[in-house]
Amino acid sequence: MNTNTNTNVILIDVGYGFTKTVAANSNGIFFQKTFPSIVREITTPISELQSFRVTGISEGFIRSTLYRILFKYALSQCDVECASISTCLSVHNYTSQCNELTSYIKTWCEEVGLHVEQVNVIPQFMDTYLNTLNGYEGDLAEFLDAHVGVVDIGDGTIDCSEIVHGEFVEGKTKSMEEGVHCLYDEILTDIESAHGELGLRIIDIADIIKSGAVSNNKKDIDVMSIVQSNKAQSWKKIEAFIHSVWPDLNVLKKLIITGGGFKLYEGEIRSILKTGM
To answer: Structure pTM?
Structure first.
């Protein structure tokens, strides 16, 4: 067990697609792990949660057994006796559920035998903003004073948020209940409609998108056209949503795009950053 006397900080983000954990102190990061937000290899008697999945803007997500198991598992993996805990909460539910989640986390820490010094819950996109701020090489005063937009392309939702003078502007936050998981489902459905039942799983989708092929009886099937067609349709929806939030991107001094969908749509994202839509 890590018994370092420096203050340990554990950062946990339980997302609809993946749960991310980082633990650090003044000596640096001593633990980090990312795992799918499904109960698979986590030791639990609740076997019926093996295939349970939450998508969309779910107000009940933090109250679910799945969320509790994932969070406690992440805490237990860090192997410390005392720590401060930081986590993110969907911008859609932040104001109404911040205090509720803080209370849950304190209880979960007690249940895993972890003494919690402090709990910090921030809007989900603010971790990206703060990380960008930490690594910013320009004029920090100018950055802090800027009108910043953040687009979080997540597994279950896509969130557009604004930060002005370093403060979260709650009234200017909008969410679309169609994250990248919808694209994954559509690709798998279209592949099996065209080529029959292949036993494909969501966990296989990253390789399918990258290669544009699936294997069937040791034979590769070209599905690149299906991948590209669905991806193009999905991006049109995302682009239209961003445009509905900011008809003119020039009103923003900075635009930060984050989330699991960033790599997936990186080429399209760079295009709109150049053209301003």
So the answer is: 0.70
